[in-house]
Design goal:
CATH architecture of chain A: Orthogonal Bundle
Number of domains of chain A: 1
CATH class of chain A: Mainly Alpha
Shape of chain A: globular
Order of helices and strands of chain A: HHHHHEEHH
Pfam families (chains A, B): MarR_2
CATH topology of chain A: Arc Repressor Mutant, subunit A
InterPro entries (chains A, B): HTH_MarR-typ (IPR000835), MarR/SlyA-like (IPR039422), WH-like_DNA-bd_sf (IPR036388), WH_DNA-bd_sf (IPR036390)
Distance between the termini of chain A: 20 Å
Strand content of chain A: 5-15%
Oligomer: homodimer
Largest sheet of chain A: 2 strands, antiparallel
Helix content of chain A: 55-70%
Largest interface: A-B, 77 and 78 residues
CATH superfamily of chain A: Winged helix-like DNA-binding domain superfamily/Winged helix DNA-binding domain
Strand order of the largest sheet of chain A: 1-2
Protein name (chains A, B): HTH marR-type domain-containing protein
DNA sequence: TATTGTTATACTCTATAACTATA
DNA sequence: TATAGTTATAGAGTATAACAATA
């Protein structure tokens, strides 16, 4: 009675009836959400990294700047928590951004173990004038394959998937 | 529940309609498909890898078996092409599967440079009795957050994205 | 000359554990 | 005792380039 709500080919061949359609690999993979997600993520990430090449920044660096733009200043660990990056890895990430003058480290006065990472003026400017337009262009290029309706659908559904939000009834 | 570190500013929030928001929440959300895809892909991949742990196989190994089940036998390079894996990496992947008796290498008679990789009986059995049900359960767990309609939507849209198919008018 | 599989190698990425300074 | 940041290091994963056999 359990309705897994899965693409038929993923249910295995164990579906009683003998309507045995030989699932092709293309069909099975094409209906496996795991695969589709991985492929789509790889494709868009490659394009974003390519587009960012001239800036000396990675796609993840852009993520740090975006988080800081909206919610900063934040500690290194807090930024890492939001981006699923370990604190030891965050050290190098912030090093790069600081060396480029896009963020500054200063001690958090309330807790002097932690840094208070903050966007600099140049960092904010780079975001607005270069990075946002750049990534927006990549996104619209990829999304151009979809109808406007599908674009909205996609983001809403993905947010539900990744956010772990239970399906509203 | 798990926190996948979705940057809060990307999740949505206040939609300032009069174009004076400093390029944050609303606009960023509309352009954040790259993030959403990456997060969703990471989440589902982690769960699939976790579920496959007992089998000694990786999610990618399962992909190889799926491709062979439907379209095999194939050369190592052809399998790699379909899964976006380099031929030098495919050597190790096939090594593992062969050592477990799930596939066999034999020389392609038409082109003796290439191998003809084929699923074995045990390989086919493992797919049907263990791997397909296992991965189906993971998928259904993740997709349970979505309505039936959204599940179908998602796969169709992702296929368009990753496939590079132009938007049909 | 080009291609399949292979190997060796190097490079990237990331996490783990230990250390320091604060709490 | 616990935590933020740091550092060194080790491991996984992957790609690159060269080589042998075959086309």
């Amino acid at each position: 009675m359990e309705d897994w709500g899965l693409p038929d080919p993923l249910r295995g061949g164990a579906m009683g009836g003998n309507g045995h359609e030989p699932a092709t690999a293309a069909r099975r993979l094409a209906e496996s959400t795991g695969w589709l997600l991985t492929d789509a993520a790889r494709e868009i990430t490659l394009k974003l990294e390519e587009a960012l090449k001239g800036t000396g920044l990675r796609w993840r660096d852009y993520g740090v700047l975006v988080v800081l733009e909206a919610d900063g200043p934040l500690s290194q660990q807090e930024i890492g928590r939001r981006l699923a990056v370990d604190r030891s890895t965050m050290v190098h990430v912030i090093d790069v951004l600081e060396q480029q003058g896009l963020v500054v480290r200063s001690r958090d006065r309330a807790d002097r173990r932690a840094y208070s990472i903050e966007l600099t003026g140049p960092g904010r400017t780079l975001l607005v004038e270069v990075l946002h337009p750049l990534t927006a262009r990549v996104h619209s290029g990829v999304m151009a394959r979809l109808t406007h309706e599908d674009r909205a659908h996609l983001n809403r559904i993905l947010a539900q998937l990744a956010g772990g939000a239970p399906r509203p009834e």
